[in-house]
């Protein structure tokens, strides 16, 4: 899933992107920006921007609807931008070598149909600079890590994170202040029958993209209840369980098949062999090639 980065940031260098990965509820990019002007733009997605690395003490000036925001663009400086507003040209006083852009499409936001929740649309996000909310910051760090170091369950991980991100934004960063968010999500673990259905679904589809919407539907619970209920049932979030199962699958294929590493990477949910090799090595302590050589030597 793409954001609007290619259209809005035509002159910015692209460092990493989620476009080739199985993220369905948000997308993200790491970009390098040069000093100068980013042209006026009207986004159709909500956007979060965070400075990851800055070496020249840049100053950013942006404005929309008569609101002007001038801030020092130092590491962790974060902005929010709702969908549908006309943002005038943004000016950067110096190069910024690494910036995270997170794009929030309309389908990720809350509707009156979502269980126990009010409406929170992409255009209801506050136009805000200097966002310091620690919950938001922690999730942006997790998105950055996933962009840099792809995991086998990254799609499901980011789908689940997107739900929590929207809830946090609705609670603390809605322009209208009228969104009703429960104090705590619905509690309770999945019963054995529902949990077995979900585990069976995951185990039967290790080779396929799996979304949090798929799993919530299989469990017959709301999207906003599922991740918490699964974690209470299994002692780990759904993406961690999926990652364990796919790692087991990778080990089996390496030891008992002659499948090419590139094919195993795709089978186990990675966008390419390089990401698979890095993740497998971090988890197992040996590269896929070394693991296969050791396994077949016995």
Task: Give your account of this protein's structure.
The chain is an alpha+beta fold. It has two domains: 168 residues, Jelly Rolls (Sandwich); 115 residues, Homeodomain-like (Arc Repressor Mutant, subunit A), CATH 1.10.10. Helix content is 40%, strand content 18%. The protein is built from ten helices and ten strands. A six-stranded antiparallel β-sheet has the order 1-2-9-4-7-10, covered by helices on one side. Strand 5 and strand 6 form a beta hairpin. Helix 5 crosses helix 6 and helix 8 packs across helix 9. The protein is globular.
Give the key terms.
298 residues, alpha+beta, Jelly Rolls, Arc Repressor Mutant, subunit A, 2 domains, six-stranded antiparallel beta sheet, four-stranded antiparallel beta sheet, 10 helices, 40% helix, globular
The CATH architecture designation of the largest domain is Sandwich
Task: Output the CATH topology of the largest domain.
Answer: Jelly Rolls
CATH C-level class of the largest domain is Mainly Beta
Main sheet record: 6 strands, antiparallel
Going by CATH, the homologous superfamily of the largest domain would be Jelly Rolls
Give the topology string: H per helix, E per strand: HEEEEEEEEEEHHHHHHHHH
Termini separation (Å)?
43 Å
Low-confidence segments, ≥5 residues, pLDDT <50?
A: none
